[in-house]
Amino acid sequence: MLRRLPPIVQFIFISLIGIFIGTVIGLINEFLQQPFHAADAVVWLFLMVISGGIITVIVLFGRNKLG
Known about the structure:
By secondary structure, this protein is mostly helical. It has helices at residues 7-32, 38-62. The radius of gyration is 15 Å and the shape is elongated. The relative contact order is 0.17.
């Protein structure tokens, strides 16, 4: 799938996978903090959803489901 995408989109895709994994780790770390701060966890969750959404759009675009 990645071979059909332009190189800059491939770079963004791989970078966003790293960002997504980092936000999952950050969210897990936030859940393990004492005392727990829900606002910080919501920020990590928001970042995770945004990066995951962009990854999904790129995958759908690469499979010709979009445009």
